[in-house]
Give the backbone structure.
Amino acid sequence: MLTPSEHTRLSVEARLGERARTTWPQIDQLHVRHRGAFAYVEAELAHGTRGKLMRLRYAGAVGRWGFPLYLASSDRYKDSLLPTGSATGTPADALDRACRLHLAAPDI
């Protein structure tokens, strides 16, 4: 299993943070923790609620990740696809998909 470098992990965190700031105003802060090939992403909302969003799975490049979404009903992560049908995408694609599931879509 491929493991992302420290540079890749920091880049992903920066990309996710930028996307959250520019597209998802409901998110006050993202929390990302890494374990092996995975990056677990939680969102802290402006009113203090914190919840799981997704688990990114490294696919060998900083811009290509699989992204199982968190399903609270089963307390599990489930593989997800982009609207294009692709099983991998950028961290921003994954964040948008997760936020559309867990948060109301912003006016864009």
The chain has a mean pLDDT of 89. The first strand starts at residue 27 and ends at 35.
